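2024-03-11 09:14:02 INFO worker-7 job=invfold-0412 stage=load source=structure_tokens
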């Protein structure tokens, strides 16, 4: 087994771990360990809520989750020799659940506490608990379904430079200012409440907490991209913005559908991830890199039969025609799939959770035929223990 550089105690919050990670992005958060190019190492991670969700049938913990705590990340890991302008090459060698904690959860967040892609249709909190058995999972809350997961880190990335951090905060503040009272908000701005910043203390902690970026969205450095195909065997190329790169990760998912549409929509779990790192000197300029690039690995569930639902860019409430709006089109595809699954005995909430966490395939299938974008969501039919095809 590779050397464990970051170990977690699941009975303690991140702020009380032997090595304290972080839940904000800032260049001045100190590294917890260092590695050399070519090293292989293991990182353990808590679930993204820092243990707020319990293995029970009551969704109140989803309803009441404190989002100022998330996402708890393990790291940063300092890579010796990495300099701004380089590319950090990260190979995901293995990833899995921590022994004795082989379960996960999927949630619908309440509209007033984060919401989700379909929050106007599903404004109330709900939860599904999943039992993990090797590569397979099933849930007592969503019957007649069993599938293989494609396990991956929902969140992985390097630290931003101060200049990049300032850019994030400026543009996201400008966005929020366009509709400051929106529920849920347009962006999660810096918030010192419940900030965890590694070993920082005192005045330095207060300074960093006031300006550190929240971990909610993906950005130029990677971060919370929630890409289900970043699984075993994947190679990720990260732009380096600070000395040592300062790589961090967390938010491990046992499985997820494209889009993670319910926001807490993967099968969220604690877990470990084994990594190998290397450096491409001057790679950002050489390859014109702005955002990360990745090469998917060879390991994923082998499903061959799908039922595919289409959606177009027409509002489901008003019938308003939008011009080439892929967001509206994907929402309509998801809603069409949910209405269909309801005919087979699933509740709308169960169908919503399933689309979010099962290995469904989402596509922008057409983006040129004015005025309608066409998006599709493909559900593998083999995950059901019944026939769901029209007949």
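2024-03-11 09:14:09 INFO worker-7 stage=emit residues=391
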């Amino acid at each position: 087994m590779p050397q464990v550089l970051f170990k977690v105690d699941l009975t303690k919050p991140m702020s009380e771990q032997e090595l304290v990670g972080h839940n904000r992005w800032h260049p001045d958060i100190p590294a917890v360990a260092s590695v050399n190019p070519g090293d292989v190492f293991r990182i353990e991670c808590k679930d993204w809520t820092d243990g707020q969700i319990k293995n029970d049938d009551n969704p109140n913990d989803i309803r009441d989750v404190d989002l100022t705590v998330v996402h708890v990340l393990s790291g940063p890991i300092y890579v010796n020799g990495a300099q701004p302008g380089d590319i950090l090459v990260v190979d995901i060698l293995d990833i899995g659940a921590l022994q004795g904690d082989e379960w996960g959860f999927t949630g619908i967040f309440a509209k007033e506490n984060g919401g989700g892609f379909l929050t106007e249709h599903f404004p109330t909190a709900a939860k599904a608990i999943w039992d993990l058995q090797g590569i397979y999972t099933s849930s007592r809350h969503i019957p007649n379904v069993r599938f293989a997961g494609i396990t991956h880190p929902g969140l992985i990335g390097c630290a931003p430079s101060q200049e990049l951090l300032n850019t994030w905060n400026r543009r996201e503040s400008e966005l929020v200012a366009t509709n400051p009272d929106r529920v849920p908000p347009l962006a999660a701005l810096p918030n010192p409440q419940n900030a965890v910043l590694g070993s920082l203390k005192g005045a330095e902690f207060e300074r960093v907490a006031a300006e550190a970026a929240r971990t909610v969205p993906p950005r130029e450095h990677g971060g919370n991209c929630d890409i289900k195909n970043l699984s075993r065997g994947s190679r990720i190329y990260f732009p380096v913005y600070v000395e040592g790169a300062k790589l961090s990760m967390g938010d491990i998912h046992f499985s997820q559908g494209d889009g993670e549409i319910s926001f807490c929509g993967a099968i969220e779990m604690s877990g470990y991830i084994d990594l190998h790192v290397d450096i491409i000197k001057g790679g950002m300029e050489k390859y014109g890199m702005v955002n990360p690039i990745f090469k998917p690995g060879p390991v994923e569930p082998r499903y061959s039969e799908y039922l595919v639902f289409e959606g177009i860019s027409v509002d489901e409430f008003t019938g308003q025609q939008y011009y080439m709006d892929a967001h509206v089109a994907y929402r309509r595809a998801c809603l069409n799939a949910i209405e269909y699954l309801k005919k087979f005995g699933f509740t709308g909430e169960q169908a919503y959770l399933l689309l979010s966490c099962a290995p469904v395939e989402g596509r922008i299938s057409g983006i040129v035929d004015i005025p309608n974008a066409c998006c599709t969501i493909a559900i593998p039919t083999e995950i059901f223990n019944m026939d769901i095809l029209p007949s």
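2024-03-11 09:14:09 INFO worker-7 stage=report msg="The first helix runs from residue 60 to 63."
2024-03-11 09:14:10 INFO worker-7 job finished
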